[in-house]
Every structure is written in C-alpha cells, then in structure tokens.
Amino acid sequence: MTLPPIDAGRARDLIGRFSGLPVLVVGDAMLDRFIVGRVTRISPEAPVPIVRFESEHSRLGGAANVAHNIAALGGRPRLVALVGADAAASRLRELLGAADIGTDGLVEDPGRPTTEKLRVVTERNQQVARIDYERDADAAGDVERAIAAQAARLAAGAKAWLVSDYLKGAVTRSVIETLLQDRSHGGVAATGRTPLIVDPKIPHLSCYAGATIVTPNHHEAEAATHLRVRSDEEARQAARDFRQRAQCEAVLITRGEHGMWLSDPDIDGSIPAVAREVSDVTGAGDTVAAVLSLALAAGGTLAEAAMLANQAAGIVVGKFGPATLTADELASTF
After folding, report:
1. 193: how many CB neighbours lie within 10 A of its CB?
2. Along the chain (334 residues), what's the average pLDDT of each consecutive run of 10 residues?
3. Strands, DSSP E only, in the chain?
4. Which residues form the domain of 291?
5. Count of domains observed in the chain
6. Of 40, 160, 189, 243, which is most buried with the most CB atoms under 10 A?
7. Is the pTM above the cut of 0.85?
8. 324 occurs within a structural domain
C-alpha cells in the first residue's frame, strides 16, 4: 500500500516550524576530505590512473553532517561526538564553527585519530580511491563516560534526540541507555515528549530498544532480518520483523530508487522516491535522519516526518558529496 501524500499546506507549515528547534545529535562525527584532479593517463608503474592535483576541500561527515543538515534547515543542533587530538579535529571544529554548530559537546580521545575519509576524485566527481583514517573500537572508560555525560547535559530541553551510529566508537550501549534511562519511570522517552531517532548499524541493533524510529537502508534491513527486500511485500515483512528485533516503535527502511517503507503499529506503507537525477547518495541517510528529527520536533506525525525526509533525500542525492539543503529548498517541492 502507498501512503497518501502529505498536504502541501501542512508540509510547508511543519517546515516553517523548523527554525530554532533544538535537536541533540549523538554519534560518529567525521571529516570528509576531497582531493580533486584530472586523469589523463594510466601509471606505467601499476594499472592505476594518475591524478594531476587541482584542488582540495573538506566537508562535515557522519554525525557532523547530520548536525550540519539540521543547522542548514534552521534548527539548532547540539552535537556530541568523539574526536582525536589531531589536525583533523581542528579542521572539524573550524567547519562546525563556520556552520554555527557548537563544539562544546566534542569529547577528545588522544588515543585515536579523528575519523577522516580522504577521497581522490576527478573533476567530473568520479571517485578514484578512498583512504580511511579511523579506530573503530567502542569508546570505553573515562571517554565513554564523558560522551554519556555530554549527551545527558545537552539532551535537556532538546525537542528531539538523534543517534547517528557509524560504528566508529562514539555510540555504545551505555551512551544510548543514558538517553533512555527514565523510560521505565515515566521520563521523557516514556511519555513521548522527546522522540529518539536512530540511524543504525546492525551490530548495535540490540542497543536501540525503546527508540521512537530506526532508519535502516534496505541492505541493513536484509542483514538484520535475513529477508530479501526487493518488493513492497518483502519490505513490509522485513519492516515488521526489524521492528520486533530492534524493539523500537517504528522503522523507516530507505530503499533508494524504490523510495521508503514506513512501519509502526498503525501504519504499513510505501513512500515513492522523488529523486529527479542522482549525482551522489553519500550522506543521504544523514539528511533523512535530520529531517525526521526536525519534523517530529515540530509536531509532525511519523508519516508526515517520513514524507518530508523522503522529499529532502530526493534533493540531496542530486548534489555531490555530503550535502545539505535549506528549508526554502524543501518547502519549494510542495
């Protein structure tokens, strides 16, 4: 079943409420660096292209890109993330500052590098190679306690909590439990006042119990449920199974050119894709999570939030690299 589209007036009203909404983002921040060059020949030393350097630039990635999306849409992100004591961390702080995102929630671990992805691309945005600088072991000890403490501090007053899990160490069971510790005692998570959105990684699936909505892509849904996700009927079954396994209230499976599938106790249906031209899917999941959190914080239903997120994803996949969009861009699609 295809869900009925959101009313255009209602969509624009919700988007108009994004401005100033505080949203907590806890997760794995990254620095995305791009070395851009021209390929004119193959190396005589090995069958690889020679890239003649032309330019270099950096962007916010991972949880930092989620926060950047929230800021670009008018919200006020509060970022809690893990960084090293290195040049990449300094550059990450610079980019966050330029985007008007606070850095007081960053926790420094001198024993690991800041997660950094270095991509070599051509002037036509074709990726030649990628080098990852990272240590993906879970944070532990004083570092884990510091992340949990920052999350608890910055959660106060936030209208939505968002966990951006890339399996790079910042998201642990203890950190998530900090956000949900009052759920069995009538706290904010239990009463529904503060939605918790999780952009997941399957090895941490058991950590997400109690989340409002979890947003796996179709590959992650298949891995979690051991089911193929090719048709709508398969998506329906996988979403139901995923919801049961994760013990979350709702699941939104992102399915690329096939759109999305939303499942909660009251809804089971597809949301058709809206992308006009796909340039790069990097960071599209970050945008989906950001818009979901803002729409729920603005008072939207799960279905309304998912439809806004679907429209936003259709915009950013037409841009290169981890991209953002503005509230005006999103509103103009309705």
Report:
1. 9
2. 93 97 98 95 94 95 97 98 98 98 97 97 89 95 97 94 96 92 45 83 94 95 95 95 95 93 93 71 85 97 96 87 88 93
3. 22-27, 29-42, 49-62, 76-83, 106-108, 116-122, 127-133, 160-164, 196-199, 213-214, 250-254, 260-263, 268-271
4. 8-30+61-115+135-331
5. 1
6. 160
7. yes
8. yes
